């Protein structure tokens, strides 16, 4: 039975290690595709079109919005950032599980559009560690710490909307756990509609045959 | 962090191998407790009080109903069958995952009372195998087959209410998968309220300290 892929949304506190975790997941296991976002912000030195981002003009981005070409998009500091729908859809149709790193507001918009999306929330292993990462090591400015605390507060308010809490203690163990959670999600009834319909049709036929 | 156990409800088609699967699960892995039902039906030869069932009188059972001592109960063919609440609660409090085998109506009543219960639906590996098990091998009466088809039809209607579909192909593999699904369920936010509250309190404190 060929399964459609799962759209996996990864959110979590600043410093929880989401990026490293996702890289490890894609390297260690087959069947994953990392979604690359589209942006109107200019590339920084070393960034490559199609790797960090797809870099496009404001005109192109706004045309794409009008064409409903994004799974979700947002504007920060005068630049657009969005998740291209076509790539995501193509990978899902191929049976790949597609991973998006996205903050909580975007995650909730995705859950509305794709009720079958799997939402994972990554946290550091302990409160003490969370505190260390949020308040820095004496090198971060008050403004940076303030911003991190505000965002962490917002993210923490929404944890109940996520399917699983993933505690990032050991990187390899955590990647393995994430892999297991995603693979197990394939066993949910909402991701096996075809199999269930087949069973029901077969049961109807047996009942008819019996009458 | 000490977790409360999970109440696991196992349902599925006749012949899906639920009983064998649950026995294997309890034998192969620690941390499980099988719930023993209470009934007013008399013990059959070989049955032992506290192993197959707790055998009680109708008076005792009805007093227990009045005392709200059951997680759920039902009446079949003039006999009561019920899941004693005290045993379930005690095991959950100890951190044991408690497994109940129960048909779909009971499963839905449990989900209402215990929204955090994990509902697993066991099916044979293929439609052909399902058909073979439901229509028997030429040795079963029409009435028995009819009853099985009716019940299977009812069960199939409710699959979407379950958290996971567990396909029972190889017994050991299936038990391992069930174990994984149950253990993963411990990572859901609804089963980590304490940890989440701690994080939120800590974030509030950090914000206050910063002001």
Notable characteristics:
Rossmann fold, homodimer, Guanylate Kinase phosphate binding domain, 46% helix, alpha/beta, 4-stranded mixed β-sheet, 5-stranded parallel β-sheet, 20% strand, 8 helices, 2 domains, 211 residues, globular
Description of the molecule:
The structure is a homodimer of 211-residue chains. With 211 residues, chain A is of the alpha/beta class. Chain A folds into two domains: 140 residues, P-loop containing nucleotide triphosphate hydrolases (Rossmann fold); 60 residues, Guanylate Kinase phosphate binding domain. Helix content of chain A is 46%, strand content 20%. The first copy, chain A, contains eight helices and nine strands. A five-stranded parallel β-sheet of chain A has the order 2-7-1-8-9, sandwiched between helices. In chain A, strands 4-3-6-5 form a four-stranded mixed β-sheet. The longest helix of chain A has 18 residues. Chain A starts with 6 loop residues before the first strand and ends with a helix. In chain A, 31% of the residues are buried. At the A-B interface, helix 5, helix 6, strand 9, helix 7 and helix 8 of A face helix 5, helix 6, strand 9, helix 7 and helix 8 of B.
